[in-house]
Each structure stands twice: as structure tokens, then as C-alpha cells.
Amino acid sequence: MKLLKFIFFSSFIMLFTNCSDDNADATPFILSNENIAGIYNISELNIETKVTSTTDVAGVPVPFTVATSTSAGDTFDFEFILKADGTYTASGLYRLVSVVTPAVGNEVTSSKIISITDSGTFILNTTDAKINFTSALDDFLGGTFNILTFNETVLSLNQEMEEVVDAITTEINTSISFIRE
User: Fold this and answer.
1) Which of 30, 59, 76, 146 could bridge across to 42 with cysteines, CB 3.0–4.6 Å?
2) Residue 69 CB contacts under 8 Å (≥ 6 apart), including other chains
3) Cα(126)–Cα(113) distance, rounded to whole angstroms?
């Protein structure tokens, strides 16, 4: 029995000492213009919107949600090219299905085909993992996006915006993921 325990214990120790992390020597994929350059396809697109109106009640501002909407893209036939010189082009089609839920009334669902032909520039902020797009034509991407995931195959972006016009506030949260070809 002691021999069996010894063999079991020795095997257990050898198992842990011989296992090593194959990725321990792997170099991390650094965020840079050279590494982000490539041809991408959209894999996922989601937009959430909330419209709020503020009304003054007895001197107290009271917010009221006027409507919310969710939009999801699908059926992507799209090419997004990022170049190391800080320029991009985007072209193709996708379908956007939107569901608007007003505060009063029924949900409204709509579906439309979006056609994009765009180009512009981008600036990487590698310290904060952000990318700022300036569109020249079609506003496919505009403004600053947080880079949520970046590796050899995936680029995932998120943007949260707020627009205030008089007493109406619109909050827009856009998430878009790309797969490198």
C-alpha cells in the first residue's frame, strides 16, 4: 500500500512540475497603427438609444423617458479597411432591425438595408485604448470609441454619447465588433 501511495504521489508531483504554460513565451499583441492595419468584416452591431425629457414640476426638474430603442445589425456584406497611415475605407451593406418602445403606445419594429461608402482618418490613443474616427463622407464611424477587445482576429469597439437639446436628452450606446480577414 505504501508503494502505491508513493507511486501516486510521485505521479501527481511530476504532473504539476512538467506542465507549463505554452503561452508564457508568447508576445502580447500590441495596439499600434501597424498591428491594427488590416481588412475587417463586421461580426456584430448593436445600438441602444434612450430619449428623456425633463419637465419642471414645482421648481424640481423631473426626467421622463419618452422612448427607448434597440437596433441590431445582421446580414453583413461589408469591408472595413484600416491602414497603418491612419486612414480607413468602409463599404458594403447590412440590415438594421430596430425596435422603438415609446412611453405611451405600442412598440414599432422596422427593418432597413444600410448602404455605406465611407472613408476617413483615425487616431489611436494606445494609452487609454481608444480610437477616434473622422469620417469624410458617410459617417459610418464618427467620434471616439473605447477599444474593448483587440487581438490578431478581433476588434471590438464601444461608444457612449449624450446629446442635449433644450429639455431633451438622447443617450446612445453603440457596440460594434469586427473580425479580421
Assistant:
1) 76
2) 47, 48, 49, 98, 99, 100, 101
3) 34
